[in-house]
Amino acid sequence: MFTVIFALFVILLAGLLVDGGLAIHARQRAADIAEQAARAAADDIDVGLLRTTGELRIADAGTACAKARRLVARYPEAGDVQCGLRDSRTAWVQVKITVKLQLLSIMPGFSDMEMTSSATATPETGT
User: Fold this and answer.
1) Residue 83, beta-bridge partner list
2) Could you identify which of 32, 35, 98, 107 might form a hypothetical disulfide with 119, taking C-beta atoms 3.0 to 4.6 angstroms apart as the criterion?
3) pLDDT band at residue 36, thresholds of 50, 70 and 90?
4) Which intervals hold domain Putative Flp pilus-assembly TadG-like N-terminal (predicted)?
5) Alpha carbons 54 and 23: distance in angstroms, whole number
6) At CA 43, angle to CA 120 and CA 124, rounded to 5?
């Protein structure tokens, strides 16, 4: 009896280590992808307005988000993507990654986890 309980306890601890590491990695990966996508969206500036008035703003939410979605599509692990503009100078992107549990999935009550991260970016000028 002791061996069975001890074995289950060891499997649970190993699952927490392995699957916890996978979850932390997925969260960092989602943050990285979201930051890159937000920068891609913020790169869609209104060049005409910048040249005539010197005002820097994002041209269009649709094209900015399309750039962000194209960038996120390069990463097969990235799932749901949300994108938008907070104002004419700030783009935000949210990326969700699903973590497939390796060891804890054999235990009842544990299922896949979703890790979400978001980022914002603003265009800048200068040298």
Assistant:
1) 93
2) 35
3) very high
4) 3-44
5) 44
6) 75
